[in-house]
Structure formats: C-alpha cells, structure tokens
Amino acid sequence: MQDGEAAPEQPVADAQYAQSTPGPRRRPVAIFVTVLVLLAIAAIALWALPRVLRPDPRALVRDLAEKYANAEHVHTQDVVEYSMSMGGMGQTMEMPITAWFSRPNLLFFENEGGLTNAKAVCDGKDLYMQIDALDGVIKLPAPAAFGDMPLEGVMPTPGGGMKSWVFPDRDSLPSDESVDASFSSIKYGLDESDEWLTSLEAPDNSWVLTLRSKGGPVVTLWIDKRSRTVSQVAAQIDRDTIDAAGSAGEEAMRRIPPEARAVMSGMQMRFVIKVNETQLDVAPPEGTYDYKPPEGMKVIEADTFQEGIEELVKDAMPQMPTFHMPSPPQTGE
C-alpha cells in the first residue's frame, strides 16, 4: 500500500467477528464461590431479621393486654387439654370452649367437656351458672366485670384458675402498670429441658414466651405475630406451685380435709389451651346473652357461687359429705 492511499475496507464478516469476540470468561469455581457467599449472606439475614424485629418481651405482653382491654367485644373458640395425676391415679380430658364477652359485664361461656358440660351466661343483671352434672342452675347477682366472674364453677379447677388466659380481659390480663409487679421474668423461648413442653405442637407464625409469675406457675405463652392475640397457653401446677402462692395457697390447703392433703403432695396438673379463633370488636349474634334454664332443671338463687353449689350438691348427693375444693393460684390477674 503506497503512502496516501486509503486503507482497504475490512470485510463486513471480519468486522462482525471482531465485535462479537467474547472477553475472558470467569472460571466456574469463581462463580460457585460467589453464589455460596450470596446464599450465606441471605441465610444470616433471614436468621437475624426476626431477632431484630421482634419486640421487647415485656412490651409485647403489655401490648397484648392493651389490645384486649380496648376491645368492646371479645370472642374466642378454645380447646383445653387437661391431664392430672394424684395418688397414683390419672385423668385426661379435652374440653371445647366457646366464649363471648361484651363490656361491661355481658358473658356467654360454654364448656362442652362431656361429663363436665357447663355454661355461664350473664345478661348484665343476673349471672346463670348451669351445671349439667348436678342437673341444676345457680342464679347469682351479675358481677361488675369479667374478672369477678366465677368461671371456676363451669370448668375443672385448673381451667377456672387460668380463666385470664382462656378468655383474656382488661381485668384479668396484666395491665401496663402491673406487668413488672406480676412477673419476675418474661423472656422469649420455652424451657427446652422440659420434655412435655417441647413435645407440644407450636402454633404457626407465633412468638413463644416464658412468663415466670410471682407466686404462681410458670406459663408458656404463644402470641400470634400478625394479630397479636393469644394462640396457645401451657402450664403445669403441682404442690410446689400451691406452696409458692403464699397466703392464697395456704388458704386453699386449709380447706382440704387432712386425709386428702397427703395425697395432694404428689399432685401434678398439666394443661394446654389452644385458641382456634379470636375476634375482637365483633358484636355477638343477637340473643347471645339471653338465657332460659332448661325445663326440669332446678334453679338455686344465691349470693355466691359457693353457696349455690353446696345447695346443688346436697340435693344431688344428700348422703355424701362435701368439702371445698381449692382453686389453683390465679395467674396474670
């Protein structure tokens, strides 16, 4: 090619080949390592995120109490699984429970536990306690608030004692001011050394807390993350729990005949409350708080549940001596 002559044009095919020639390729090993690093970062983020976002446990319990306290209507569908061993004998029961509560003191509470079938209905003026096993109804003056409802009368002893967890309310769940006074510790997780607790099926998408109350049993509480309502409760009660209740436990033991106290030394009660449905601020169906005693059932008017139940027991079993069975230490109240 002479000076001054134009360079020959590059063939079109050669130009396209030059433009499409790839650069240096990354080695497969480098790509694999990069993917592994990204996966590791994602796994760490997924592990850490719930721990960063979950609220302080005490604040969570306070928020739970406030959520129920601010609701004008509360509705729950629960199943209580209850087992007791005492004196070498054991008993297991499962009790579906339907409950409605509207402020200030309207109540519908039904326990469909087979032989323990019972119902409580408060229309704002009178409280009716229907005890199917005794074929009678106790009519009481209406309590002013849910916390005063004697639900131990329509549930076995542990269920009645844990009414604040079966059916939470502002008067039974700890308030903002009383959380610190009610519980010595509140922390995430459950006691992994307890085979019974670890064997329980945990509700989906729930936080689990261990609440160690002052003078009461240790309560394991599951709270639904989305609705911030109670999804499950588990607790165990034994003689040590009653003794730890202080004066309340001593009073309960004094009401038991001496011959029965020795048997109770080996007592153990376990129960799980599975909350299948919770509705807040949903008005109940019309007529929910209306009550008419079933035909043929005896109605006893009394000032206290204890007076009424004693009358029903005398009628049902006139030859049998009666004594007062204690309620377990109240928790969260």
Protein described:
It is a single chain. This protein is α+β, with helices and mostly antiparallel strands and 333 residues long. The protein has a single domain, classed as Lipoprotein localisation LolA/LolB/LppX (outer membrane lipoprotein receptor (LolB), chain A). The protein has helices at 12-20, 28-53, 57-69, 157-161, 163-166, 179-182, 195-199, 239-244, 247-254, 258-264, 305-316, and strands spanning 73-86, 89-102, 106-111, 118-123, 126-131, 136-141, 183-188, 206-213, 218-224, 230-238, 268-280, 298-301. It has a 12-stranded mixed β-sheet. The longest helix has 26 residues, at 28-53.
Write the layout of secondary structure elements.
Elements: H1 12-20, H2 28-53, H3 57-69, E1 73-86, E2 89-102, E3 106-111, E4 118-123, E5 126-131, E6 136-141, H4 157-161, H5 163-166, H6 179-182, E7 183-188, H7 195-199, E8 206-213, E9 218-224, E10 230-238, H8 239-244, H9 247-254, H10 258-264, E11 268-280, E12 298-301, H11 305-316
Parallel strand pairs: 6-12
Antiparallel strand pairs: 1-2, 1-11, 2-3, 3-4, 4-5, 5-6, 7-8, 8-9, 9-10, 10-11
Number of strands: 12
Radius of gyration: 31 Å
Side-by-side strand order of the widest sheet? 7-8-9-10-11-1-2-3-4-5-6-12
- CATH homologous superfamily placement: Lipoprotein localisation LolA/LolB/LppX
Mean pLDDT level: 75
Binned, the helix content reads: 25-40%
**What's the total helix number?**
11
| Oligomeric state of the chains present here | single chain
Q: What is the CATH T-level topology?
A: outer membrane lipoprotein receptor (LolB), chain A
**How would a textbook summarize the main sheet?**
12 strands, mixed
Corresponding CATH architecture = Clam
How far apart the termini lie comes to 104 Å
